[in-house]
Design brief:
Blueprint: H1 2-17, E1 24-27, E2 35-39, E3 42-46, E4 52-53, E5 55-61, E6 68-74, E7 85-89, E8 92-99, E9 102-108, E10 119-120, E11 129-132, E12 138-142, E13 146-150, E14 157-163, E15 182-189, E16 192-199, E17 210-216, E18 224-225, E19 232-233, E20 241-251, E21 257-265, E22 273-282, E23 288-290, E24 323-325, E25 333-336, E26 339-343, E27 353-357, E28 363-372, E29 376-385, E30 388-394, E31 398-404, E32 407-412, E33 418-426, E34 429-435, E35 441-449, H2 455-458, E36 465-472, E37 475-485, E38 496-502, E39 507-513, E40 520-521, H3 531-539
Antiparallel strand pairs: 1-22, 2-3, 3-5, 4-24, 5-6, 7-8, 8-9, 9-10, 11-12, 12-13, 13-14, 15-16, 16-17, 17-18, 17-19, 20-21, 21-22, 22-23, 24-27, 25-26, 26-37, 27-36, 28-33, 28-37, 29-30, 29-36, 30-31, 31-32, 33-34, 34-35, 38-39, 39-40
Amino acid sequence: MMRLLLSLLLLLSFLQMNAQTYPKVILPGDYPDPSIMRDGKDYYMTHSPFYYAPGFLIWHSQDLMNWEPLCRVMPQYEGSAMAPDLLKYKDTYYIYYPAAGTNWVMWAKNIRGPWSRPVDLKVGGIDPGHVVDKEGNRYLYLDKGEMIRLTEDGLATVGEKKKVYDGWKYPDHWDTECMCLESPKLNEHNGYYYLTSAQGGTAGPATSHMVVSARSKSVTGPWENSPYNPIVHTYSVTDSWWSKGHGTLIDDVNGNWWIVYHAYANDYHTLGRSTLIEPVEWTEDGWYRTVSAATPVTPEQEIKHGLELSDDFKGPQLGLQWTFWKEYAPQSLTFKEDILWMKAKGRTPADGRVLLTTAEDKNYETQVEIRTGNGNVAGLILYYNEKAYAGVVSDGKTFYIYRDAEHKTELPNRIGKHFFARLHNCGNRLSVEVSKDGKEWTLLTGDMDVSSLHHNNYGGFYALRVGLFSAGKGSAGFSRFRYRNAVPQEKDMSAYLMVFHKDEDHGLHMAISPDGYTFTALNEGKPVIAGDTICLLYTSPSPRDA
């Protein structure tokens, strides 16, 4: 037994040292449907804004790994916008996207703007993908394998849609949500056009989503499916990343190729879909597939990665980390002496005014100083949509603790209209605290389960975001907003280890659990010790027998 345990420890150390480098997370949190492009040595990327406004946050990088936010390019709210295609054609940047039952386009001469107002292309479908043929004709691919001709300026369509691609037939026994052929993205390489699409459904079962590839000598087809399909896919619920899909190919300045896509962290649908990257190699027979290692790009300049979420509200404008929900209302905000005053709307988080920022971590802590006005209700919440939220609000007399839209607890507010609120989300277990001075805290509730507040229960493809809330009359004041990663303390890190054997591979497997009921597989569900290794351990002679 001692020899077995020693061998196990050595093997675990080996696995740790030789862990697969990719995929890498380049934007953690809710950054779904990534669209990426290269302009010389610069890379730009944007994502689905859905009902968050202002929309289409554009990111910049020079190494594909570190990304800085540049600007938001769609201030007006016009419904749920999703699955964009960001590109540059000649000297103009474009964003094609669907919203409100049609497809739109915005354009700009400078990536930082100003951007045009959206132009209605008057064509249905979702997930547009732009392509130019060898004669310079422009086309727009849409879901269901359909395409339509664009005018030369790209601001209108010509003729009707036509179906040119049927997708890839995946095995019947795979557990998927639907066929859902969508997310067409096109690249030209070595005389072929490569069509990269998504299938299987975006959420639902962890194994639904996938990336598939096809190629053709013409942008209109016929399309031949890749023998390496699916290019990206989650094969088991034990995988670290669920619902991997919606991929876009990108080449770097050194001639290497990559694929960028989104995925849910295992058992963390609440965080939304993060943006991931993997290297790609071209095979001898002219197809592409993912590989586990690559040489990163060396940038000309260092870029500070990520979006700063904490805010002192210096003004005069809202920071890039903030978005409204189903409105764009900058006129409701006033900056004064490092306090953000937000005009009230509605009565509850279901119809009130919320200002949201994207959580990035499985364990995080956020707090803010709050001032409620007369007749005003304000607070700090985690917000998915009108039916799914949690947190604390107050009118200065009572603390209202929401577990969701249907369950509310009331406690007396002995602090008053000026108070601090703090939320600690540890692995989807939420605790709520309040304070008079931001130093000494009172726990209102702990261990609130928010793990169900996500798409598979409420629809929409959103994320559980941190929100500032103002309802009733007048305005609420917010200051000293803070967000930080909050790795659990040692006392919170106890866990159950389960070691078990599987007949199908005769290997030794391990899983861990925080509560002894729900377990997560280690080593991505693969054997920690393979069956043949166990056999060797037991059959090898001991030193005493030699």
